[in-house]
Amino acid sequence: MSNTNQSRNGAFMTEETLRGAGEQLSMAANMAKETAMECGTHYVTEPAKDLFGLFQDYAKSRPEVAAVWCFGLGLLIGWKLRS
C-alpha cells in the first residue's frame, strides 16, 4: 500500500491527513459521549427529585393517606421478598 489514497474527486490524501481526520472524529465522538452522559444523568436525577418533592408535599397535606400508601407498599414489597 502506498503513502497516499486517492479520494473520489481525484485528490490525493496523505496518511497524515487521514490520521488528523481520524483524531478529529475521535474527539467529536468523545464530546458527544460526554454530552450524552451528562444529559442522561440530568434526566434521571431531576424527575426523581421532582417525584420525591411531590410526595413530600402530598404527605404534608394528607399524612394519613401517605401513611396508608407507605404501609401498603411496604407490605407488598415485604410479601414479595419473603416468597
Helix content: over 70%
Radius of gyration: 28 Å
Strand fraction band?
5-15%
Written as H for each helix and E for each strand, in order along the chain, the element string is EEHH
The N- to C-terminal Cα distance equals: 66 Å
Major pleated sheet: 2 strands, antiparallel
Number of domains: 1
Averaging pLDDT over every residue, what do you get? 80
How many extended strands?
A: 2
Please identify the structural class as seen in this structure.
mainly alpha
Tell me, what's the shape?
A: elongated
Describe the structure.
The chain is mainly alpha-helical and 83 residues long. It has one domain (4-82). Helix content is 81%, strand content 7%. It has 2 helices and 2 strands; from the N terminus they run E-E-H-H. The protein has helices at residues 15-61, 63-82; strands at 4-6, 12-14. It has a two-stranded antiparallel ribbon with strand order 1-2. A hairpin with a 5-residue loop joins strand 1 and strand 2. Helix 1 crosses helix 2. The chain is elongated. The mean pLDDT is 80.
Key features?
mainly alpha; 2 helices; 2 strands; 83 residues
Summarize the entry for a quick read.
The protein has 83 residues and is mostly helical.
What is the secondary structure topology, with strand pairs?
Blueprint: E1 4-6, E2 12-14, H1 15-61, H2 63-82
Helix pairs in contact: 1-2
